[in-house]
Amino acid sequence: MPKVALFIPCFVDQLNPEIGLDMAKVLVRAGYEAEFTRGQTCCGQPAFNTGYWNDAKPLAERFVKVFRSAETVVCPSGSCTTMVRNFYPVLLAKSHLRDEAVKLGQRVFEFSEFLVKVAGRTDLGASFPHRVAYHDACHALRELGLKQEPRELLRHVQGLELVEMPYSDDCCGFGGTFATKFGMISAAMGNAKAGNAENVRAEFLTSTDPSCLMHIEGILRRRNSPVRTIHLARILAHQCGPEGAAAPESAPGKKS
Amino acid sequence: MTNAASEFLRSAAAKSGDLRHRQILRTSVDTYNTAVARGKTRFVDWEAARRRAQAIKWEAVNHLDNYLLQFEARVKERDGHVFWAENGEQARKYILDLATARGVRTIVKSKSMVAEEIHLTTALEQLGIRVWETDLGEFIVQLRNEPPYHIVTPAMHLTRSDIAQLFKEKLGGVNTDDPEKLVAAARAALRRAFFSAEMGISGVNFLVADAGMIAITTNEGNGRLGSSLPKIHVALTGIEKVVPRLEDLAVLWPMLATAGTGQAVTCYNTLVGGPRGKDEVDGPEEFHVVLLDNGRSELLADVEQRDVLHCIRCGACLNVCPVYRSVGGHAYGTTYQGPIGSVLTPHLRGLHDFQHLSYASSLCGACTGVCPVRIDLHHHLLHNRRNAVKAGERAWGERFGFRAFRWTMLHPTWFAALGWAGRLALRTVNALGLGGTKLDPLRPWTKERAAPAIPARSFRSLWKERCGTN
Asked: Is the dihedral of CA B75, B81, B84, B88 positive or negative?
């Protein structure tokens, strides 16, 4: 079986482990052997985006070394993929690892991008009988150019009703440290997104990016919305019937 | 935190929670979006047009010295005057001295963001000169004693009934909310001003180097009237507005119109090359062009961000920006709002006072996606942030935080251990029912959002259990 290395973003490792596990499960189902290198931590994006390029640089160099021998790297986040593919060449412009970083960037793929463009798979045998809206995460959409790939995967999920919400490509307001530095603007944007999902009566809002979803989930719960968020990998891992996984713990309608 | 930064936080917080305000902007932007989508269909290939526009501006900006001198020479041949102003003060002084020398009492002004940048109107009014804003939107915000809300649509934040109420208060005898009658009332007031003014001041959309002409674009004809009726016409512009050739307008005029308002082309497009000629029946007796630098040369020297000077001030990046749509134009406290303002203002008015605007963005990149001259706007926000850190402009707590972050992430064992401890602490906080309260360490996050569920185990620990140690 061809091997893929899992690039598990630091906050997925600590806060959303099930997204990483489900991504691995889907990759195995697609015929790949998933490997996890324990040396990985963070790609450095939080520091890079806040302007601390000198603090981000050693993390980028470290990342390049950790994934040096990986043929293909798959990540459940368009944002972290963007950091490696699009921003490492800038950040490491003067580093001795620059060329290696550029080449690595070509081997790092966002999860839906990998399935559709590299593995050539759109039907992963998933079933998820719910009404789902897709949120275009900014980095996946504008930096990686992924718009149809996640939708294509969702269209092939048995029982899933994909609904388009208005302004699906408007930013949700997460934006890394922006979410806490300018919490009120971030929340205003999040509430607009939440309202759009509610207006199309979606049960779930899904996306390529766990960070956007964590933010939107918090906003949805705060406004007592019936809509819940779920990462794309979790939907694709979900199967109904005898062999199926249990329903996701964040079932619609459950409020905190 | 600087005054500008805390003032921004204050008004941004207030406006973000103002649902009526957001609805007004949403409605306005929806109308704009529909018009732009239709406008773009007139282009065979919008993306190719963007690349062409970018190439034209690139050529102009990278040979700014040549093209500006060519422009100056042509204008002087026609007995026009060109004044090079290094900063706002020099530009103001030139115009104020001119107005004083010619005994000007009344000025009709068409839209100029550069005039806002150098606070020209206030300076003229201090001399006792009456300045009439003749663009309808500008006229409205002038009546409200407000700066423009948006670089293209200055009164975007007002509804028809807001304007009806304003006219009722400020223009005696106007009591209607019929748009046509409101426009007619403004027109009646402005016509008198046009006929009595001794000086017209205009902005410039493009300085055409080979023709030695300025190009002005308006929808109300006020630019044309203000540059031809009064005896003196002063055109005020930033040096970056130059384009090499007259034929470049064939691309740039329709692109400005489409990106700005969704129109195929703006209603009145005027070229002015000098004062009234010997055989001509109309036009001003004197024609002055004030070319303003005010920090632009320094931006020109910045190879990384030079393309910011490509900007044709269409306002598309403001309309598409979710931050602009949440906080509105006035919250920025700057002449240029939205993404272009957040990128440009630190260069014009200092990183120290305006770096916060580069942080007030989720870096979504929608601005870069719509810019008709393809300025790399959201990546320039990243450059400004890096420059702020480099210049030591950030708080020590943040600097220390990222140093600690770096150290932790360089040590996977510590990362895992600290992650474990952190999750345990947060789970305890949540179990005690303190999640989302002021005692919650995640308070900056949970202030606006419900507290997230914290898992007992990390991915790496679960993976080790299931798949061994690889």
From this structure: negative
Ranges of residues in chain A whose predicted pLDDT is under 50: 243-247, 249-256
Per-residue confidence (pLDDT) for residue A245, from 0 to 100: 46
Distance from CA of B372 to the nearest CA of A (A): 16
User: Does the residue B382 lie in any domain?
Assistant: yes
Name the residue among A185, A179, A57, A236 with its Cα closest to residue B386: A57
Q: Which has more pLDDT, A244 or B412?
A: B412
Whether residue A126 lies inside any domain: the answer is no
Domain count for chain B, please give it: 3
Could you tell me if residue B307 is inside a domain? no
Does the distance separating the beta carbons of B412 and A44 come in below 8 Å? no
CATH code of residue B119: 3.40.50.10420
B234/B75 Cα distance (integer angstroms): 13
CA distance B329 to B148: 8
Please tell me whether residues B258 and B176 are part of one structural domain.
yes
- Mean model confidence pLDDT for chain B: 96
Contacts of A138 in chain B (CB under 8 A): 362-366
Record: contact A219-B448, CB cut-off 8 A: yes
Same domain, B214 and B242: yes
Residue A250 is assigned to a structural domain of this protein:
no
pLDDT at B383 over 50: yes
Per-residue pLDDT at B388: 98
Q: Given this model, what pLDDT does residue B1 score? A: 80
Q: Are residues A178 and A146 in the same domain?
A: yes
pLDDT digits (tens, 9 = 90+) for B200-259: 999 999 999 999 999 999 999 999 999 999 999 999 999 999 999 999 999 999 999 999
**Domain range for residue B145?**
47-297
A178, closest residue in chain B (CA to CA): B362
Please report, rounded to a whole number, the percentage of residues in chain B having pLDDT higher than 90: 94
- Give the distance from residue A215's alpha carbon to the nearest chain B alpha carbon, in angstroms: 7
Report CB contact under 8 Å: B366, A176.
no
CB contact under 8 A, B368 and A142: yes
Collect all residues of chain A within an 8 Å Cβ-Cβ radius of residue B399: 52
Q: What angle do CA A203, A209, A211 make, to 5 degrees?
A: 95
* ipTM value for the complex: 0.94
Mean pLDDT of B336-344: 98
Nearby residues of B400 by Cβ (< 8 Å), 6 or more positions away: none
In a domain, B449, yes or no: yes
Q: How confident is the model at residue B467 (pLDDT cuts 50, 70, 90)?
A: confident
Same domain, yes or no: A35 and A109: yes
The predicted pLDDT at position B207 comes to 98
Judged by a CB distance cut-off of 8 A, whether residue B445 touches chain A is yes
Same domain, B36 and B92: no
Mean pLDDT of B38-66: 97
Are A72 and A16 within one domain?
yes
pTM for the whole thing? 0.95
**For testing the chain A interface, which of B359, B448, B461 should be mutated: the one with the most A CBs within 10 Å?**
B448
Segments forming the whole domain that contains residue A205: 131-237
Residue B302 located in a structural domain: no
The average pLDDT across B348-354 equals: 96
Banded model confidence at residue B468, pLDDT cuts 50, 70, 90: low
Of B322, B449, B457, the CB nearest to A171: B322
Residue B415 and residue B446 share a domain:
yes
- Within this chain, do residues B59 and B37 fall inside the same structural domain, yes or no? no
Which chain A residues contact residue B464 at CB under 8 A? 38
